Predict the structure.
Amino acid sequence: MKSSRSDLVHSTSVEWTVRVLTLASSLALGVLLVVTFAGVVMRYAFNAPILGNNEIIEMASVVLVMLAMPSAAQKGLHIRVDVFDGMIGAFGRFAGDILARGISIYLLALLGWRSWGKLADAAEYGDATNMLSLPLWPFYGLLVLGAALYALVLAIQLVDIIRSGVARSE
């Protein structure tokens, strides 16, 4: 008997890793909100902008986005448009899901591989932000981690979709 797509199998270790990264992403969102609020208040109420405010926001944004993507993929929270679903039928949706995940895995692997090279360069040469001199290599590392885990989540989904076959009930 084939399993339904709502019963997709997931690895427990991947789920826990996604949860930890989601928590880190939530903390980055909190930092982003506090720094943005404080920056606005300091700039407009006291005419004393926070030094490096934009750098903090940029780095927190990298953490926020890259660590939240695996969770969004795992829970199916990405925006999907099903304009053509009726026309392409169940097999078309099945093929589209496989194609979309395959292309996404390839692109995330490429992003992770290129970011790994940037991480190595940033660590070797001591690259840092301009104002606060924050080292860049940890942020490249989080980018690599987020891309790799996102690709892993998509790979698990791809295997589950292939195993479940064409879903007639969608």
Q: What stands out?
A: The CA atoms of residues 105 and 152 lie 8 Å apart.
